[in-house]
Amino acid sequence: MARMLFTCAYDGAPWHGWQSQSGGGTVQDCIEAAFSRILKVPLRIHAAGRTDAGVHALAQCFHADIAQTCRMGSDEWCAALNALLPPSVRILSVLAVPSDFHARFNARGKEYEYRICCDPILQPHLAGRVWHYKRRFNTATLRRALRLYCGEHDFRHFAARRGNEPQPIPPTYFVRTIFSASSTRRANLLTIRFCGSGFLYRMVRMMVGMAMQVASGAAPLDDIREALSYLQCNPSCFCAPPGGLYLTRVFYDLE
Question: Under CATH, which number does the domain 109-251 receive?
């Protein structure tokens, strides 16, 4: 078998998230079905991480083990898969990787963008692709809030529970390192970017929600400090909607 690393993009609006589930309708199910049609056998793919329903990806990564008798080049794989996939899912690139490589466990970090539209009326083509935010907010305060996330912290108050956490939960289970957190604004489109070692379930959306609460004056800056230092047991971390979130990059050490 030859292990291949695929990079794909998808519009998350029509899908029930990335990860395969019994009811179908996920990006993973769709891509695996395309592989099966090409290879004539079932194939399981393994992603760098899962995205929720409605969340988009500009560069999701997954690996698959392909029989070496299937002698298709990178461009051929892209063309063959894209011919079978719906327009909302595209394979962007393919790379041969070592047999012990794993798309999830070899990832050094990820980058996410969260997009917010501040127009009083949302253009129809942006529906489900941005958070339509109509409240006033202070950009300088937003940047101060985002800086508080940088560094290594226990993000348990910025994570929703899946119900499958290990019991007992290890002390470092919720610990992540945020390398950078920034915002840019062009006209009425605000983009918030996070680059980190990894992210918990709904962590980016909850960090964005809390930062926007602070920036709009609905919560004090200290709420973020307290949530990161355990002083606040039940912080009101509003979870931003999924449609504004984009997985933009997965980092690997590949020569």
Answer: 3.30.70.660
